[in-house]
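Note to self: the last two entries modelled the partners one at a time, which told us nothing about the interface. This time every component goes in together.
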Amino acid sequence: MATAYAQPTSALQSPREHFLQPNTPPQPRKHASRQRFAQEFSQCLYDFVIQLLPTAEELAVKEDVRKLLERLIRTIEPDSRLLQFGSTANGFSLRNSDMDLCCLIDSEERLAATDLVNMAGDLLERETKFHVKPLPHARIPIVKLSLDPAPGLPYGIACDIGFENRLALENTRLLMCYAMIDPPRVRTMVLFLKVWSKRRKINSPYKGTLSSYGYVLLVIYFLVHVKSPPVLPNLQVMPPLRPISKEETHLNGHNIWFFDDIELLRQRWKSSNTDSVAELLIDFFKFYSREFQYSHGVASIRAGLLTKDSKGWESEYEKGSPRERNRLCIEDPFEVDYNVSRCVTKDGLYTIRGEFMRASRILATRPDRAIVALAQLCEERKEEELVHPLPNNGLFIPPRLTVRYEPVQPVIAPDGVFGAALLCTILPSDVAFTSLTSAGGVPTTAAYGLIALLRLFVTPDDFTSSHYFLGRWRRPAYIATALFNGLVFATQISPFYFPVTAQSFNFAPVILGAVTIFGVLSWYFIPADKWLRREQVLRALRIADEEPYAAGSSAVEGSFASENARYRAESVNGKVKGVDID
Ligand code: GTP
Ligand code: MG
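The predicted structure of the combined assembly is written out below.
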């Protein structure tokens, strides 16, 4: 435990200051333009996110609504309390976020959740102006409420009331604790990703994509288990400061222990990762576009990377429904048998990965002004590109990802015409003919050699989930491939015999040089999207993945402390998990 704590950090800054200035200066090792972009982009992210935080008035209205609903529900269950969970309680709330409320009943004799949902639904329908929709038979029975927009409430209110969902209160508290450890980086990343995923239309479990809760878990998994050194500690494996009984750490058979004395943690622990929020976001997109093992892996913030096999979470279809589960696997922090992303369909996952790739590509190009990158990232996605919503019969039919196939035009490629003309003129010359045929093979050999070299020096540890991943033999295989192709390449571009005369000169390098210059110019002037469209990449990914499957708040940080205190007091057991560190 002693090593888990570094020296105390400096006194806390004011909440706004703290939110705006990461307490960790960017590293000097990065290339200057990259560093400048990261700095500018970080600032853009803070400015962007801050203006999307809920206003004090909105929070006040929501608190009034909560009190009103609590008063009404107490007419059915006098010993009940209505507590906020989800984003309004964990610091990841955006302006006009929905309200997630949980009704706790502090008496032994209480109605079943299904009856409560029906009775509360009737009551709220009678006594309020809310549109009410009870869902008594959902996995977690809830009453859905919504209020139409009004002059003082331009976006209306959406609210879900669940009953006795104590695990949700606990996981909200866990997320809040993670947010409190490093608000400038964690909150900014999460809030930005929430806006981004909503704008890009990939934040809808009902349509086969991922819930906000799922995205938050992906961020925490990345910061705890992927980044090295980690940005966040694993709160669930930190030992308690005093012995704690099993009753205190277990709820409904689930271990809900985590280290929750964040003020103490912040005094004694500091991450040695000094990446700025922009750098983290760039790496986040890169990781989830290319590196996360979607086909076999399970992201667990509790235990790191697990396998689908070990959890028994192979991709499968629900009985009697074409809806698929376990395409993407994210373990719930406490309900470890529960896949938070179980609703993500195959098309949903490809859409999400496509968006991660798009974001990664935008950030890799580092536009001159960071604000341009931000605008491009959050550009609203067209509805037509979405997976289709539920059809009327209630069954979810996962549609194929929309891929536009352009009709094939009967064109004669200009390079074909050029090649044919050239061939006619040079056929009489032996040298020209041999050079030309030799030049035909040179690019192929060079390309194979180049791929091996790039894999060896640029991405030696990528593509680990590939079907043909060679494990520890990959580096020797890259070296052998590069050497062999290098040798063939050298032979192909050498003169036919010495001394070199007009009759023995091999024109292959000249032809290759001309083609290379043409290629470089095309690469420079033609946008990447024209060469390789995102749909093509997604289609390739889809095909590559077929095989394995076939085989097998508060506006600023300051209010966190009071939120945490309230949670400690009001939450399930009201227990204090940390005592004096000394
Ligand atoms: P916004 O509503 O988009 O602001 O985000 P949020 O942070 O409130 O997340 P969301 O509405 O997705 O989830 C609210 C809470 O429901 C989470 O904080 C969890 O406590 C709880 N929850 C538990 N399991 C699930 C799950 O599988 N899906 C979702 N959506 N929520 C879950
Ligand atoms: Mg919510």
